[in-house]
Write a structure and sequence with these properties.
The protein has 9 helices and 10 strands. By secondary structure, the protein is α+β, with helices and mostly antiparallel strands. The strands form 3 sheets. A 5-stranded antiparallel β-sheet has the order 1-2-3-5-4, sandwiched between helices. A 3-stranded antiparallel β-sheet has the order 6-8-9, with helices on one face. It has a two-stranded antiparallel sheet with strand order 7-10.
């Protein structure tokens, strides 16, 4: 039995979680601790018995989400159409593990995929309705977009240099001129209304389904209030054809928001181009959509 070592994700394991729980929440000390089947990068998550989870940040940059989610998830939940994580308790650093951590309610469901979703058209409408409900939630006192949200909800300008470098390095493999046009179009627009809630990472891995339908949205670590354009990226990463059209019609955002959404999708696809074959398809989808809407 050893203390945590600061070597990233490898330093977090079931033994550490058992020790943290036993020390700080003895009422749950006898519950079995097991890794979840589908884990994230920002946090390591372990089930505690059948009804709870322990969620531990893997690095300092993800720590701000712990208190943010603990404060705001209970306030957002009554305003949203599907289940979101329930904050149960906050843990403290111990055994050389340096970060605060969280205990949440376990949410049953299957990660969204083309195979697990019964009807992509219905699913697209459900995601759009969730986004609209989130945008309508009371934003009073909410956390303004910034470092805690990895600048989701803030100006795309934050990632300008990174994007330009990626365009330069990929100029022989993609239509870099058109991609640059997409990026410039995104930068020329801004969110000029009061800030609204955004999730920041509405991707299939953070969407759960039961009986083929959307049942929960998880991982609000990049959430905040600001520009909701980042929440439209799923149009290019998961939907296509009619399902994308339904999503677009239902979410009812103006063309300036969509221009920034294409910017967000393009930025992520560019910086992951070498490691993600799916990113290459996203770039094609974004460029095609840009040409169809200019």
């Amino acid at each position: 039995m050893t203390d945590y070592h600061q070597d990233g994700r490898a330093g977090i394991d079931a033994d550490l979680v058992r020790r943290l729980v036993a020390q700080q929440f003895p009422q749950w000390a006898d519950l079995p601790v097991t890794p979840v089947k589908v884990d994230g990068w920002d946090n390591r998550t372990y089930r505690l018995g059948t009804d709870l989870t322990a969620r531990l940040p893997t690095a300092e940059s993800y720590v701000a989400a712990v208190a943010k989610e603990h404060t705001w998830l209970p306030r957002l939940a009554p305003q949203l159409p599907v289940e979101i994580p329930s904050a149960v308790a906050l843990g403290k650093p111990a055994f050389s593990y340096p970060h605060p951590w969280a205990i949440r309610r376990w949410i049953s469901g299957e990660t969204a995929s083309v195979e697990s979703v019964r009807d992509l058209h219905v699913f697209a409408r459900s995601i759009a309705e969730f986004i609209l409900a989130l945008q309508s939630a009371d934003a009073t006192g909410g956390p303004l977009a910034g470092a805690h949200s990895f600048y989701r909800g803030a100006a795309l300008q934050h990632y300008h240099d990174e994007t330009i470098d990626a365009l330069a390095s990929l100029k022989e493999r993609i239509n870099a001129d058109l991609a640059g046009e997409v990026w410039e179009a995104a930068l020329t627009t801004t969110w000029e209304r009061p800030p609204v809630w955004f999730h920041g990472d509405i991707s299939h891995g953070n969407l759960l389904v039961r009986d083929g339908r959307l049942s929960a949205v998880i991982d609000f670590g990049t959430s905040g209030i600001g520009d909701p354009a980042c929440d439209l990226v799923i149009a290019y990463t998961f939907f296509s054809g009619r399902s994308r059209a339904i999503f677009r019609e239902t979410v009812a955002q103006d063309e300036a928001v969509w221009a920034r959404a294409r910017g967000w999708a393009l930025w992520k696809a560019l910086i992951t181009y070498e490691t993600s074959p799916a990113g290459r398809q996203v770039i094609d989808e974004v460029l095609t959509d840009h040409e169809a809407n200019v």
